[in-house]
Amino acid sequence: MNPQKITISVVLIVAVVGGIIYLNSQKADRGSGNGTITVTPRLSLDRAAEKVSNSKEEIPSEKKATPNVSSVVKKPLPSEEKSNRYELAKEITTPDGFINTDGKPVTINQYIGKKVILVDFWTYSCINCQRTTPYLNAWYEKYKDKGFVIIGIHTPEFEFEKVYQNVLEATKRLEIKYPVVLDNDYSTWSAYQNRFWPRKYLIDIDGYIVYDHIGEGQYEETEQKIQDALKERMAVLGENGTINQPLTQETPLQGGTKSPETYFGANRNEFLGNGIPGKTGEQSFAEPITVEPNKLYLIGSWNVSGEYAETSAAVGSPQIGSDRIDYRYRAKGVYLVAGSPNKPIEVEVLLDSGPIGTSIKGADIFYKNGKSYVRIQENRLYRIIDDKSSAEHFLEFIISDPGLQAYTFTFG
Hints:
By secondary structure, the chain is α+β, with helices and mostly antiparallel strands. The chain has helices at residues 3-25, 45-54, 79-85, 127-143, 164-173, 187-191, 219-237; strands at residues 87-88, 98-99, 116-122, 148-154, 180-182, 199-203, 208-214, 262-263, 281-285, 296-304, 309-311, 323-339, 345-351, 354-355, 365-368, 371-376, 380-399, 405-411. A hairpin with a 4-residue loop joins β6 (199-203) and β7 (208-214). It is elongated.
């Protein structure tokens, strides 16, 4: 082989190897996934506590501080007492991707001894998570420069929520600026022994879980705990200043009876009113004689899989336009998780046999020729009804084309 060919071969080999290294560098390091990883606590906690205990100075309250927010720093607990009272945080394991991190991985341990951490388990099609997000965004903006960080652990409920681009687009829609980690294999979820969306875990500067909250609500209590942890952090690090911002005002949610979350897929469609719950495959569903409250009725030709039911009439079939979803619900808000992977589908939506009124329409409802519609395309949560109070109504979806995949109804 002549020198020129040798040189070309070497260049090609280097280029291929370099390309492989670059592509691998863009992947999340999933780690071993063996066992639960616990973060390493700070070693200087007792010395910091002693320092604060011996000090005669306290950080004074400002004259205009909110009455229910104390700005006096409390003495940090000794490490032995903390270890007896709280569990250590668990590390992020086998991540599947990172958002809002400039492409760099994040860990819990990298912040221990430096910041207070709020870990939020969520998934983007969950309405409860979406209603929590504005509070998380507000806390992040208020406290990110005071030693506070939020890490969103996105653990998917449905397969489409494992797709990185889908999660990325959701974070943009929800205006999330804090780091988000994809937990597609539930490894971090399992490490925390979590079972709920959303759920928040507050981790103090020493690596201990000092507070957690399941679901929506109690936002003032959660923010107060964040402020307490930030005050302790200041004491431990010997920083000057106060943490006395007014608590973010909570928007009360209406209580009362509402319909249960209702799944279309065979894995969890126990509320199916016609047909056989738990059965997969192509099925023809007959028009019901009566529509009972809180029961899901499919009409027409549907292909039922584990996660969703899909309209399946072939093109040219006389059944096109006759596929329907019927549901008699009681709630203030109605949300549909759905998608149409092949093309967008305009679905006519009727409330009590007529168009949805403009005063109670959800954000995804639009009007055409005097009728109300929702345009289904990307896999996400669609907002159908946004009423002022909880009431019972009859809801119908008339689907014009095959390929619509319905996952679940949720109610608020």
